[in-house]
Each structure stands twice: as C-alpha cells, then as structure tokens.
Amino acid sequence: MHQGKAIIFSAPSGSGKTTIVKHLLSVIDNLQFSISASTRDKRGRNEQNGKDYYFLSPEEFKNKIDNNEFIEWEEVYEGNFYGTLKSEIDRIWNDGNHVIFDVDVKGGISLKKYFGDNALSIFVKVPDMETLKSRLTDRNTESEQSLSRRLYKAQFEMSFENQFDTTLLNNELNESLKQAEGLVRNFLKN
C-alpha cells in the first residue's frame, strides 16, 4: 500500500479551517479529504452521506469502536460522536493521494500522535473571541445554547495550540489561504 502524508487542520468551531481546507483541495492536486464519521444530524439538505460525513447511528458508531475500526474517535458534544475510520485513510492512500483532515482540536492531537512525523498539524485561530462569536453568529446555524457551548469549548481548545506543529492566524482570509498553501506545499515536497 502507498503511504501518503497527512495534513491536519484543527481549530475551534468557527475559526475558518473548513474554508481553508476546501481552498487547498481546489489548488493542490494530490490531496484528498478525509471524511469523518459522525452521529450528528445533517445540517440542512446540502450535507451528503459519504461526501461531508459518514452519518452513522450511535449503535453503528459504537460497533465500529468495538471492532477497532477508528484511528481516533471522541464524543465531541454529548451524544455526538466523531471519528476517523482506518478504511478512509486506506482508501485515500490506495488512490496515491495525501490525506487532509478538518477536525476538532482533540481529534487533531490524536491524529498527530498516530501519524507522527508523517503528518503536519496546523492550528487555525482567530484574533480574539469576539471575532469567533461573530463568525459563529453569522452562520445562522446556532441556537443561543449551542453558541454558548461552542464559545466555552473554544476557550478551552485555545489552550492546546502549542501541541500543533504550527499556528495559522486566520485574520484576513486571502492571506491565510496563501499561508496555508505554502505550508502544505512545502511539507509535501520534503
């Protein structure tokens, strides 16, 4: 089996990691997105099983845990499990590609430990908590309770920044996209 490299983008929700990852996928040919498994509900009708996530029931997810089918998994919010399936990485590497992840902070740390020097882990952050709150509010996907929960969690997640290979400050999007592209292209060259 071909063993590619792993690019890990992690950040508190709303920091812009998904936008950055989508950009990288559009400009770097041999990158392929790692689709996470999740027990959460789809957000709107645009999300598709097998494209955005592998949407599993809690029972299906727990069976895969019991069968050691995950590289990493966690209960991100009560009742909402997320994880990276070993079969997903095999699929990407067998296609001759490198894998790129868009995961929460704990997942990013776990993936870096698993892949070691074969991975580049990038922590994406915003200038301050007000910017983060504004971005989450602008999504129009959060209730007051879920917004509060995400901001509380983000404060905690910021304390793990030093466990990543590098930090990308996402203040001005076009500049952040250029920086991310440079970091990834440089890592894939070596």
Major sheet: 5 strands, parallel
SS content category: alpha/beta
Characterize the overall form.
Answer: globular
Helix fraction?
40-55%
Question: How confident overall, as mean pLDDT?
Answer: 90
- Which sequence of SSEs, written as H and E, runs from N to C? EHEEEHEEHEHEHHEH
Range of strand content: 15-25%
Number of helices: 7
CA(first)-CA(last) distance: 20 Å
In spatial order, strands of the major sheet run 2-7-1-8-9
Quaternary state reads single chain
Q: What do these coordinates show?
A:
The structure is a single chain. The protein is an alpha/beta fold and 190 residues long. Helices cover 43% and strands 24% of the residues. It contains seven helices and nine strands, in the order E-H-E-E-E-H-E-E-H-E-H-E-H-H-E-H. The strands form two sheets. Strands 2-7-1-8-9 form a five-stranded parallel β-sheet, with helices on both faces. Strands 4-3-6-5 form a four-stranded mixed β-sheet, with helices on both faces. It starts with 5 loop residues before the first strand and ends with a helix. The model has no long low-confidence stretch (mean pLDDT 90).
